[in-house]
Amino acid sequence: MADETAVQAATPQDSRKETIAFAIGVAGWFVPGLGHALLKMWGRAVMCFLTVGVLVILGAGMRGNLFSSSGNDAFDTLGFLADLGTGTFYLAARSFETNGADVSHAGGDYGTRFLATAGVLNLLAALHSYEAARGRKA
Amino acid sequence: MNVGMGFKLNHLQSMLLFALLISIAFGFLSRRRPIDRVKYIVWSLFLFLLIGVGIGWAMYPFSH
């Protein structure tokens, strides 16, 4: 009876696999598509890179609001976290948007959504690569 | 690089681009076989546009 309920101890191999999976997830967040590329999922890697990249370029080009860490309220903080989800593309967006944000027109407002969506989408892709690296069906 | 000169997109173009990009990403992440991906992308794009236009019309009375 005790054998049936006993929880199997994690082996060193499991621990190592978990660490590698975590590193792959972080890599996927840092550079969109890198997590899948490390797993040799080339189609997904290219698509993650392109979709997140195009969303960031469009968002910055439409002069969307790229939130910074010095937000005034919870929505600014949430926006910053979403934008930060793009990893290194956050810095790229900062350099693209030299004229600053302009949300006084609909285009700028759409741009803000594009940037936030790019971040959340990249976080989803990073989580997907983490799960795939852990051996979950993906 | 300065893309600050801006992309001038109207509401419909923005919605179409957004829906297309997200549908492609979802399709590639959630399906493995190419045919399944295409089906998922088309279906997701259709639903994005249907719901987007639906919400637009639902808000129409409040704009007058």
Word description of this protein:
Chain A is 70% helix and 0% strand. Chain A contains 7 helices and no strands. Classes of the chains: A mainly alpha (138), B mainly alpha (64).
Number of helices of chain A: 7
Largest sheet of chain A: none
Most extensive chain interface and residues per partner: A-B, 31 and 20 residues
How much beta of chain A, percentage-wise?
under 5%
Determine Rg of chain A (CA atoms, Å).
19 Å
Oligomer: heterodimer
Structural class of chain B: mainly alpha
| Structural class by helix and strand composition of chain A | mainly alpha
Fraction in helix of chain B: over 70%
Number of strands of chain B: 0
Could you write a compact summary of the structure shown?
The complex is a heterodimer of chains A (138) and B (64). Chain A is an all-alpha fold and 138 residues long. Chain A is built from seven helices and no strands.
SSE layout and pairings?
The complex is a heterodimer of chains A (138) and B (64).
Chain A: H1 2-5, H2 12-30, H3 34-38, H4 42-61, H5 74-84, H6 88-96, H7 106-133
Helix pairs in contact in A: 2-7, 4-6, 4-7, 5-7
Chain B: H1 11-30, H2 34-59
Name a few traits of the molecule:
heterodimer, A: 138 residues, mainly alpha, B: 64 residues, 0% strand
